[in-house]
Amino acid sequence: xxxxxxxxxxxxxxxxxxxxxxxxxxxxxxxxxxxxxxxxxxxxxxxxxxxxxxxxxxxxxxxxxxxxxxxxxxxxxxxxxxxxxxxxxxxxxxxxxxxxxxxxxxxxxxxxxxxxxxxxxxxxxxxxxxxxxxxxxxxxxxxxxxxxxxxxxxxxxxxxxxxxxxxxxxxxxxxxxxxxxxxxxxxxxxxxxxxxxxxxxxxxxxxxxxxxxxxxxxxxxxxxxxxxxxxxxxxxxxxxxxxxxxxxxxxxxxxxxxxxxxxxxxxxxxxxxxxxxxxxxxxxxxxxxxxxxxxxxxxxxxxxxxxxxxxxxxxxxxxxxxxxxxxxxxxxxxxxxxxxxxxxxxxxxxxxxxxxxxxxxxxxxxxxxxxxxxxxxxxxxxxxxxxxxxxxxxxxxx
Length: 398
Ligand SMILES: *Cc1c(COP(=O)(O)O)cnc(C)c1O
Description:
CATH topology of the largest domain: Aspartate Aminotransferase, domain 2
Bound molecules: pyridoxal-5'-phosphate
CATH architecture of the largest domain: 3-Layer(aba) Sandwich
Shape: globular
CATH superfamily of the largest domain: Type I PLP-dependent aspartate aminotransferase-like (Major domain)
Number of domains: 2
Number of strands: 14
Structural class: alpha/beta
Low-confidence stretches: none
């Protein structure tokens, strides 16, 4: 997955443009920037590639989620439905704008279960936030139907699945707003960075203003701009955006490598009795950044995960026991350990997650293993890896 594996001359050339002008900020300094507007260029390239009208770059994927929520008018006490399997950024970004993260079970897609989502909808629900974990997507058609029926916003977290698609549309562009991360370990990177995409003009303008202190960006004198509403600073730097300008040009090259390596691994493993693969919803195309599969039982999954590690197969994850990606280890959320006081809305409305029953999620996560597909491997290495994996798994299962 990580774009940093192929960091090279294109990235250096883009950054050098910025260094040559010395203008490290994305706004203003028109006369001194020698025509370089890296953040604006990357926004244009991203909107084009994702077939949306608008893209707004920000400082991180987490920031993109918060800005997306704020731009759609989500705030104190509004409930946002999110999955039990995701990155901690999901609930962080919701809490940051005063919203209430409502955790909901996943299914064999390893993303939000539409059935569980429908059960969790209340009068306070405003947003459904599927997270397309590990390269594949939620059942967006079913979720969109629910969102239309209950008048909810569909916000896609596509941070781990950029380049995948659903129903012929790039992931992130199917819902009302989509978010990407360009942190250092994502499919394409800015070093640090993130973005949201949307076809909604008013969400976009809100995001443009909100991510830069509420500046309306009218005219060429920053000091004279007005601020129609309160904002914050989630700006990306021009240096980070420059790296992204090079990486987005290479996205399809990276995806092709991922697909090739993923296919070698999958073709080798699929003949093993006892292994099944994560369900990809009909109409979905993965971005192939991970190969995700299930073992017959939790015990076997633990055994296989341990054995793969011992055999030198790195970058395979057993999320069930992972600190950052599965609700079971989110003690700081469950026990609401914060530095300062939380708002009344969060204190009174947040479900007591120490008593939550997510056994349906556990039944899938307990059996799941995800193996990262690296783009820096050689084909020979992948073939050897596939063979070793198959041997290790066969030994554990039979
Ligand atoms: C990486 C990631 C984020 C957050 O992105 P940052 O740029 O690291 O803040 C959010 N959601 C998911 C699913 C991610 O993988």
